Automatic annotation (TrEMBL):
It comes from Paenibacillus sophorae. This is DNA-binding transcriptional regulator, MerR family. Keywords: DNA-binding, Transcription, Transcription regulation. The lineage of its organism: Bacteria, Bacillati, Bacillota, Bacilli, Bacillales. Residues 112-135 are annotated as: Disordered. Pfam families: MerR, MerR-DNA-bind. Coiled coil: none annotated.
């Protein structure tokens, strides 16, 4: 099948398919006219790639085990579980960092609100907005 057909069948853009090919994740035979011709198995490969991208893996990480999971069950590919564990640790670190940022923002906002309440600035700011509207 041609690249456009593969794109329609899988819901992946032609640009992404070319990228997957450049990364060695899929391959095509080049016809005499230069067009790419993909085997029917390419659609299943692209769907598998999409699954792993949706798990937050990079194409480089996927390339390390894609061949194995296409031939075997995922459970029998030794590369998969350590990668999942590493990705989960990375996500836990990111969640912790985001939680800290959220707490810092909430504290800054609370501090600003306390300061405004203490000086009456919030009331003045609201009044100023009404004045600037010509009210």
């Amino acid at each position: 099948m041609k690249i456009g057909e593969l794109a329609k069948l899988t819901g992946v853009s032609v640009r992404s398919l070319r990228y997957y090919e450049s990364q060695g994740l899929i391959s095509a035979v080049r016809l005499a006219n230069g067009y790419r011709e993909y085997s029917p198995l390419a659609a299943e490969t692209v769907k598998t790639i999409k699954l792993y991208l949706n798990l937050g893996l990079t194409t480089e990480e996927i390339a390390g085990f894609l061949h194995c999971v296409l031939k075997n069950k995922e459970a029998f590919c030794a590369e998969v579980m350590p990668l999942y564990e590493s990705k989960l640790e990375e996500i836990e670190r990111q969640l912790h960092q985001l939680t800290q940022i959220k707490l810092n923002l909430e504290e800054r906002m609370a501090s600003i609100r306390r300061e405004r309440e203490g000086s009456g600035t919030e009331t003045q700011a609201k009044a100023g907005r009404n004045d600037s509207n010509g009210d």
